[in-house]
Write a structure and sequence with these properties.
Blueprint (H helix, E strand, L loop, with lengths): L1 H11 L15 H10 L4 H15 L9 E4 L3 H15 L10 E5 L26 H8 L3 E6 L35 H8 L5 E6 L5 H6 L3 E4 L19 E6 L2 H11 L33 E4 L11 H16 L3 E3 L17 H13 L9 H7 L4 H11 L8 H24 L3 E5 L37 H6 L3 E9 L3 E8 L5 H15 L16
């Protein structure tokens, strides 16, 4: 807290609370052009973002998106300014760009809590691989973003003792989406220009949809998970979040790659695009065959407003040149069970993570469960995990892997038979939940069976498809509903099809331009 207050005082006592260059809704390209022309500096841009954090995150609309602000951010920005002055060149594709990193990823010099109060003062000994890549590209890690404890979130982002409620800047009574809701709300509020989330069951795509952002879940293995707290290593991936498709693709250019510390990335060899930005074209949807996956958003499970909005989206896709296969079906989908995220898998994965982090408090699943420091929503899940048998002996885990393979085979057959290039469907079947309303929002997945608790068991989440397949899926803004709350279009591709679905999303974005800034966090005045 003292760190935060000192930083706030330094910002507010500076000659100007914001740079002459406006940072609200700005882009990487605009900022870097201003750096090269001398119109602004990384220090000024970083200070302006810090001023917005001071004004809006813990006061004013109380977005409450962040856990820790980087007290060295201005020094890092000054070093980048000095480098640019010496060389006349940017240090990398993200030179001087403030980035939010979800607080279940290791960042050297900042605590890593994973939303658990027992870890809130734990400082990792090194950067996660993806953070090293961000720094090498010239990014400034401006803050760590809030999350549900151990990323066990769904329709909300409130179930963490450390973070508390994160509030949707489009309507602060509503949820941001979990579990990367802090990154989502922070980006929507212009606390940074780019963000990193993690996605196991939908935790990049849900907050992207709820905050009018682009969020990509890559194919598992395209981005290293080394230094990221696991939830389910078969499905876990980090992914880019941004205010535009171009910037999500730019961030993926930086993040993608093989990493010896994460064996899953070996599968990416030969599948990494030379550039994910160069394939973005405004006419990419012309002739694209898109299957409409109506099986997962039937009228009995979906808000009528979401259904009506999606019908408009289909018309927009047609107008952009897409060929829609509206009778697309995966015959096995109605009978295949949901593959569970098991307690055994979680225990095994978290045990391995802890072993690579000597000195971490509560250094076992058992110790975390016995600490009674967990949010009440997660205590039972940890008790189950502590008692779980090894992965290789757990029938549910073994059967779940078979189910996931059955999904991949069924979707491959159906997509090949229909000759579709990708699938489209809403990101979320309902509008965002009211913060704290445990009666109407989607509850956390029960860790043993993967079933959903609570009255919305019919299923708000439509993100399970990509997670079960471990294929790439993204959310791109497709309108505003109800109380002015954003909605998202989900585009799903086959494994390693990131370039294709990013191109489709870019074409849709350029045809519609739905992204707009939330009114609750307006530009700051020119002086404090």
């Amino acid at each position: 807290m003292a760190n935060w207050l000192c930083l706030a005082a330094a910002i507010l006592l500076s000659a100007s609370a914001r740079a002459a260059f406006p940072v609200e809704e700005t882009s990487v390209a605009a900022v870097q052009a201003a750096y090269l022309s001398g119109k602004t500096t990384a220090v000024e841009v970083t200070r302006a973002h810090l001023a917005r954090i001071t004004a809006y995150d813990k006061q004013g609309p109380l977005i409450n998106a962040l856990v820790t602000v980087n007290g060295q951010a201005l020094e890092e920005a000054a070093a980048l300014d000095a480098q640019l002055k010496r060389s006349g060149r940017l240090s990398g594709p993200l030179h001087g760009i403030p980035v939010l990193v979800k607080d279940n990823i290791d960042v050297l010099g900042l605590p890593m809590s994973s939303g658990f109060q027992g870890w809130k003062n734990f400082y990792p000994a090194s950067d996660a691989t993806l953070v090293r890549k961000l720094r090498a590209a010239g990014a400034i890690i401006i803050a760590k973003a809030s999350l549900s404890e151990f990323a066990r979130g769904g329709g909300d982002n409130i179930n963490s003792v450390v973070a508390g409620f994160a509030r949707n800047p489009y309507n602060t009574a509503y949820a941001t989406g979990g579990s990367s809701g802090g990154t989502g709300a922070g980006l929507a509020s212009s606390f940074a220009i780019l963000g990193i989330g993690t996605d196991t069951g939908g935790s990049v795509r849900m907050p992207a949809a709820h905050n009018a952002l682009v969020g990509l879940r890559p194919t598992v293995g395209l981005v290293s998970r080394s230094g990221m707290v696991p939830l389910n290593s078969v499905r876990d991936t980090a992914g880019p979040m941004a205010r535009s498709v171009y910037e999500a693709a730019l961030l993926l250019d930086v993040l993608a790659g093989v990493d010896a510390q994460d064996p899953a990335t070996a599968r990416a060899q030969g599948h990494i695009a030379a550039s994910y930005t160069k394939g973005l074209k405004a006419d990419a949807l012309k002739g694209a065959r898109l299957g409409v996956l109506r099986q997962v958003f039937t009228p009995d499970k979906t808000d009528p407003r979401v259904l009506a909005n999606f019908q408009r989206t289909l018309a927009e896709l047609r107008a952009a040149g897409a060929v829609l296969v509206e009778d697309f079906q995966v015959p096995e989908l109605d009978t295949l069970p949901r593959a569970p995220q098991t307690a055994a898998r979680f225990k095994d994965d978290l045990t391995q993570f802890i072993a690579r982090h000597p000195g971490i408090p509560y250094p076992s699943v058992q110790a975390i469960a016995e600490s009674r420091l967990l949010h009440p929503l997660h205590q039972a899940g940890f008790d189950q995990a502590a008692a779980a048998r090894p992965v290789k002996e757990d029938p549910e885990t073994i059967e779940g892997l078979k189910t996931e393979q059955a999904y991949r085979e069924a979707f491959t057959r159906a997509m090949d038979a229909a000759k579709v290039d990708a699938l489209v469907f809403p990101t979320w079947a309902q509008l965002p939940a009211i913060n704290g309303d445990r009666n109407t929002q989607l509850m956390v997945a029960e860790p043993r069976t993967g079933t959903q608790a609570g009255p919305t068991a019919l299923g708000s989440s439509l993100t399970f498809v990509g997670s079960t397949l471990q294929w790439p899926a993204l959310s791109v803004p497709n309108g505003y509903l109800g109380e002015g709350l954003p909605a998202g279009l989900q585009i799903l591709g086959r494994a390693w099809d990131e370039a294709r679905i990013l191109a489709y999303a870019y074409a849709y974005e350029q045809a519609t331009h739905y992204r707009r800034a939330p009114a609750s966090v307006p530009p700051l005045p020119a002086s404090p």
